[in-house]
Design brief:
Blueprint (H helix, E strand, L loop, with lengths): L24 H16 L4 E3 L9 E4 L12 E11 L3 E6 L9 E6 L2 E6 L5 E6 L1 H14 L10 H20 L1
Bound molecules: ligand K2U and zinc ion.
Ligand K2U binds next to strand 1, strand 4 and helix 2.
Length: 172
């Protein structure tokens, strides 16, 4: 089912998440809830800590074309195993930091290794928006947000806006 997405600042979004030891139906159900929550947001990626579950699981589907077949990916214990020298800059957002966007520079291509929902080891190269998104999601598992790449003043401004948003939501 759809889960509430935590909003920054929240200590759970800054934690280092422990790896998944062995797959279970509970973890497969978590992945399904994360996909449902992601599509509903809508978003193109989601990490388990964003719904308050501190484990190394992410989901992504960066297929942008409306009519194209969705390509949901579920990754347990994802690891970047190689990066390109070439960098790319993308205006990133985050479902835990609504309506705030900023340019973030990351390696343009990354090779990622992970365990899929059947428990099989996978390895794949990503480029373009997929590369940006998978790095953004893996950062979440290490308690890192895209605003951590910004200058302190800009990060503080965004954090203050989120604190105001949370106060307003609490009153509503
Ligand atoms: O992790 C998240 O919060 C979902 C992120 C994933 C993402 C961020 C930046 C760049 C690519 C992916 C997004 O908020 S999903 C919404 C979105 C969609 C397209 C482009 C940017 C943000
Ligand atoms: Zn995010």
């Amino acid at each position: 089912m759809k889960r509430p997405i935590l909003i920054h600042p929240d200590p759970r979004l800054k934690k280092l998440c422990p790896p998944v030891d062995d797959l279970s139906d509970a973890l497969r159900d978590l992945a399904d809830d994360m996909l449902e929550t992601m599509y509903d947001a809508p978003g193109i990626g989601l990490a388990a800590p964003q719904i308050g579950v501190l484990t190394r699981a992410i989901v992504l589907d960066c297929v942008k074309e409306e009519r194209a077949e969705p390509r949901p990916l579920v990754m347990f214990n994802p690891q970047v195993v190689a990066v390109s020298d070439e960098m790319s800059t993308y205006e990133e957002g985050c479902l835990s930091i609504p309506d705030q966007y900023a340019d973030v520079e990351r390696p343009a291509q990354v090779k990622v290794a992970w365990i899929d929902r059947n428990g099989s080891a996978q390895e794949q190269e990503f480029d373009g928006l997929w590369a940006t998104c998978v790095q953004h999601e893996i950062d979440h598992l290490d308690g890192k947000l895209f605003i951590d790449y910004l200058k302190p003043l800009r990060r503080q401004m965004i954090t203050r806006k989120m604190q105001k948003l949370k106060r307003e939501r609490a009153r509503a």
